[in-house]
Amino acid sequence: MKARSIIVSLAIVFIPFIIGMTLFLVKSSAVIRGKAHFIMDTRKNNKGITYKGIKVDWTFCPDWEYKPLFFPAEEYLVFMFHYKNNNDYDVQLMPSYTFASPADRCYSSNEEISMYIEDDLEKSLKADDQTPITFNIPPNASKHYIVTFEKPERLDSFYIDVDVFRDITLVIHYKKENGIWEDYENELVKKYKGRG
Amino acid sequence: MIGTRGFKKEVTMAMFKKIVKNFGPEWGAAVMGTAAICITMQLSSEVSRFFSPLLYVGVGFYLLATVMFITFLIPWILRFFMYPEEIKKDLQHPIRGNFFPTMPISFILAGTGTNKLGPMLFGPWFAYHLSIVFFFLGAIGIFIFGYLLVRTQFLNRDVRLEHANFSWFIPPVSHLIIPVLGACSMDVYWAGTNLAPVLFLISMVALGIGFFNFLFVGAAIWHRYTYQGIPEARLAPTLMVGITPTAIIVIFLIKFIQAVEASHGGLFGINFMSLFPLIKIIASVLWGYSLWWLMLVVILITHYITTKAHPFVFGWWAYTFPFEAFTVSTGLLAKCVATQFLHGVLITLNILVVIVWIIVVFGTIKWLESGAFFKPQH
Prior knowledge:
The complex is a heterodimer of chains A (196) and B (378).
Chain A: H1 3-28, E1 40-41, H2 42-45, E2 49-51, E3 54-66, E4 74-85, E5 91-93, E6 96-101, E7 104-108, H3 111-125, E8 135-137, E9 142-150, E10 157-163, E11 168-177, E12 180-190
Antiparallel strand pairs in A: 1-3, 2-3, 3-4, 4-9, 5-8, 6-7, 6-10, 10-11, 11-12
Chain B: H1 2-22, H2 28-45, H3 53-82, H4 84-92, H5 102-122, H6 124-155, H7 170-188, H8 195-227, H9 244-262, E1 266-267, E2 270-271, H10 272-307, H11 320-333, H12 339-369
Antiparallel strand pairs in B: 1-2
Helix pairs in contact in B: 1-3, 2-3, 2-5, 2-11, 2-12, 3-5, 5-6, 5-7, 6-7, 7-8, 7-9, 9-10, 9-11, 10-11, 11-12
């Protein structure tokens, strides 16, 4: 193999790694970094919900800013849900999350954005995010799950459906009062189990 | 001075035309083999915080694959207009013809990469719209070549049993890959929109075509391997393509269940809770088959190496994408079953994928240096 060919091959092989490491270092530095502003952690004021021995808590950041490399920054609604198993046996969880607001269609969480911000969030809250769709929680253990929703413009109220139990849905309601987000109601709604 | 410049321009033009004339349909395989690594990297980055930088390395592979895709697409398209007789000759060829769908597959892979890593570069809105454009362009190309190739194969009187090889799997695989991007698109953005039924139908139709053609074509190739023996050494890498169909179905199944979940647990009445246990079982079974096939490839390649020469040919790119598809299927299956074990397998496979890719890149440059590009083997 000629020297020129070796150089070309090495250049092609190294390009993705050089780009990757550069991006990683730039993103990790303060140059391109979103702002984080947590307004609520239900673990602090015991506002979470317990159902069938599983305590559900959440930490909420209404304006997590994420900046794509080539586009301006956008704000996201970011939650980290905390599940604690208070039973004497293992439980298997398979949560899913839906956002709904009065003027907008409802939509599911954005796994991609969660993936990009997960390191920062994990460091801030000192908790590891679960990546599997379904995960096991041993007795007295806690597991955490990051959920990110795209934020519609002019948002004044919304609710999140947390489908984690077989027979009920946890619905978390938020509204903005005097510029501050308030978790004004959390309810457990029975699921429809009929035909059709 | 002007004369020299004009002469240089003429030489460059003649060279470009020569490149276009010899630019075979198989070049999409190089894009495929590079693009899929961005997904293996992304999945590996999720294993633990230690592997987080791999997400950005994935972006590096995504950008490299994009550059390759655009660079290869230009001569690939020009050849249809400048040298239609060469295209016709390749389409009639029982081996080379099957590589035509590799370029439309590259569209689907570009779309999948854009869907997964695009939001990091362009934000979600732009990335999801761009990936949908890739979806439709890729799907149209795959359906067109699917029909063209089957028609050619059925009407061509020169096709013999000894022509059968695993490159024949490329058209079925191309159809199987459509629903992967369809499901990825339904998963995050398009789930509750009017586009969801369109994506669902196109994906299911493509899945049906790919699945049944994979079974039928697979039987034909198995017949040849049993009664005619294995093909010559330069076709050995096509063995690897055998991993792909089941690996891609695993990827589709898990992306599909995520799409069902994204539709508030029910997509067109398909219930997440009822479907998920079944998908776990089917995906594990299919992943097992791909693993078995990987072992078979190792056994047969060892046979090739020990008994015959196994020189580098462009076809070695067939070692990359199928292996990467298997790695992606491992990463996604880890989201459903045996997470700890499969995460270990995923990281190991990801390292091997990069090693294979590096070997093939070096081989390709050496192959180009030898002038083999201008002497296509038929």
